[in-house]
Amino acid sequence: MTAGLPGTPELSSEEPATVGPPHHPGSGNSDTARYQRGLQAYASQFHIPPDQVSAWFAGTAGDRFGEQAIQSAATAWTDDELSLRDRRLIVIAALIAQGNLEAQPRMHTRWALDHGATPAELDPLATLLAIYTGSARPHAAS
Q1: Predicted confidence band at 141 (pLDDT cuts at 50, 70, 90)?
Q2: Residue 122 and residue 114 in contact, taking contact as beta carbons nearer than 8 Å
Q3: Tell me: the pLDDT tens digits for 121-137?
Q4: Is the domain of 118 the same as that of 98?
Q5: How far apart are CA 58 and CA 124, in angstroms?
C-alpha cells in the first residue's frame, strides 16, 4: 500500500496498463486519451501512480467531482501555452483572491516550487496580492 496526501486513504501501488474513465465505458479514443492525460497530470501533482488518481479523488471529493477534475486537467494542466510553474502561480493567486487559505494554496505553493518557482518569487506575489485582496489573505497562506 502507498500513502497518498496527508488525510487521504491509502491506495494500492499495483498499476494496470491503462485506466479508462469509469463512468464512460466504451467512450471514443479521444475521450480515453484525454482522461489518460488528466490522470497523468494529477499523478505527477500528487506523486502517486496514475491508477490511484480516481480513487484519491473519490475518497477526498467524491466520484463526480473527481471525474470532472480528471477530464478538465487534460486541458488545463497539459497544454503547451503555460508552464506548470506559471499555472501554479496563477492558481495560487486565484485561490488567495477567493479567500481560500486552507490546504489548496499550500499544496499549489509546494507544487509551484516543485516546478521551478522560487521563494523569492512567491514573496512579491504575496505582496502584490496583499495590495489587491487585503493583507490578511496572502500572508495567511504563506
Answers
A1: low
A2: no
A3: 988 988 888 888 876 55
A4: yes
A5: 36
pTM over 0.85: no
C-alpha cell at 41: 497530470
Domain tally for the chain?
A: 2
Domain encompassing residue 68: 29-76
Single-letter amino acid code for the residue at 41: A
CA distances from 140 to 1, 98, 128 (A): 34, 13, 14
Structure confidence by residue, pLDDT tens digits, 1-58: 444 444 444 444 444 444 544 434 444 447 888 889 889 888 888 889 999 999 998 9
Q: Which residues pair with 72 in a beta bridge?
A: none
Q: Does residue 110 lie within any of the structural domains?
A: yes
Q: Closest by alpha carbon to 57, among 5, 111, 130, 119? A: 5
The single-letter DSSP state of residue 137 is H
Residue 46, in any domain of the structure: yes
